[in-house]
Amino acid sequence: GTQGPLKGRHALVTSGPTHEPIDPVRYIANRSSGKQGHAIAAALLQAGARVTLVSGPTHEPAPAGVTLVPIETAAEMMAACQAALPADVAVCAAAVADWRVATPSGQKIKKGAGGPPALALAENPDILATLSAVGPNRPALVVGFAAETEDVVAHAQAKRARKGCDWILANDVSPGTQAFGGDSNILHLITAEAASTWPRLSKPDIGTRLAGAIAAHFNKD
Ligand code: PMT
Prior knowledge:
single chain, 221 residues, alpha/beta, Rossmann fold, two-stranded antiparallel sheet, 14 strands, binds ligand PMT
């Protein structure tokens, strides 16, 4: 939309998993469905922002009106995010693979007498930390997620400080929570000043609530 409290703002959203190739037919991935990131993109659009959605492979349709940049790997997500700057706000909801296969095979790896292949891994670039680094292109507000399985708030507070983002939305991704792939979630919004726990909300309602908090932040004075 072109009206709304975020009119004139550009929002960059990451969503979904990344796929890191092992060989031409195999990859490393995770259980992110893209439901959350896509819902955030839709809500920011609804609030009047221009939205660039950089997404890994998902079955979620891109909300009509957002600019979708489809990518597969973390390296591609990083390049697409940097190409989308400047942005007023960035929301990193993607479940980016922390590691990629250091040297993907150009040919399908064969089963053979040597036994299973050993996959040497290399660390992927951190998109949230890179977007959060101070510089002329830093979005005024950078929002990350934290996927944790224990001490959720404490770990997320440490992650917020380490990555340099402004806000983090922390979620418990332990087995049974269905944070990955499910239709609702319980999130903790962590800022430099405070941590508050949201009730269980549908992923679209989480998008609306986050867009409202972002609009309030930009329109506070
Ligand atoms: O997609 P859904 O099925 O709807 O599920 C939603 C979700 C569970 C994926 C979402 O709620 C969520 O938690 N997203 C972040 C998942 C994650 O990878 O968290 P993390 O704690 O490993 O990473 C912390 C932050 O750094 C995240 O904002 C992540 O996008 C970012 N990151 C991580 C690694 C990396 N190389 N680059 C990054 O930008």
